[in-house]
Amino acid sequence: MNLPLSFQDIQAAHDLISPFVHRTPVLTSESVNEIAGAELYFKCENFQKIGAFKARGGVNAVMSLPKEQQKNGVVTHSSGNHAQAIALAAKMAGVPAYIVMPKTAPEVKKKAVAGYGAQITFCEPTQQSREENAARIQQETGATFISPYNDYTVIAGQATCAKELLEDHPNLDIVIAPVGGGGLLAGTALSCHYMNPTLEVYAGEPEGAKDTYLSMQAGEITKVDKPSSIADGLLASMGYKNFGIIKPLVKDILVVTDEEIVEAMRLIWERMKIIIEPSCAVPVAALLKYRAPFQGKKVGVILTGGNVDLAKLPF
């Protein structure tokens, strides 16, 4: 199997970002284990800088750029967490950040990006509007575009999350993550493949944005026309670089409804007393809905983030 990133690439990313990001804790909950019928190990990226795993890929992508290229700054489009990651990484590197955000992005994420000193351009909530605005800014400023997910330095950064999880708990049977654009899932699949090839990797995906599920069925990238879900962080279309990694390495994509996502989110808030955002609840919803593969197994669950608009809670 010819994979675009080696374990050495992931290790190099880990070495590069370690001074700038947190090594997040892995938490367990006996009551949630009982409900799920499995032994769950939650990798808590909701405690990461910017409140989400995206800090890893963002920092790796910005810090990997040659100094000459860094100086014109970086540009990206994102509904929030990647936007914050790039804004924070650019601030650390002392370079400008230009961020295109859909005007429908959660207020908490808009405020955070502005707080890191990035220049925000608001756009219509469509992939086309995001991409056109980012391309225009790139042309005007000479900034380097960093894709939220379809970028090998981003994927290598996101892979460090599962790498830490497996260093702390090498005897897991399964790892499950959410999937949107696919950067985290591709990185997770790579770390699992290199560190424990017998591990199975699953992903949870919202019903209203199930392009990865459809792509896996079709064997090629299949888009969803107007993706919509309460899981705002998972609305991006699957990137082709990610799909090339996900297709051979991921066992299955498990689809859940918005109602199931809210229920799982509430369960984690209530039982574990930690804040997770809807996108983050998707793998939890998936393993509660599709129980068979997980029964009696040791399952690593990547809790991706906790950036919730507290004025708009779904429960």
TrEMBL record:
The keyword Disulfide bond does not apply. Residues 17-305 form the Tryptophan synthase beta chain-like PALP domain. Keywords: Lyase, Pyridoxal phosphate. GO terms for biological process: D-serine biosynthetic process. InterPro entries: TrpB-like_PALP, TrpB-like_PALP_sf. Coiled coil: none annotated. Its cofactor is pyridoxal 5'-phosphate. GO terms for molecular function: ATP binding; L-serine ammonia-lyase activity; magnesium ion binding; pyridoxal phosphate binding; serine racemase activity; threonine racemase activity. This is Serine dehydratase. Belongs to the serine/threonine dehydratase family.
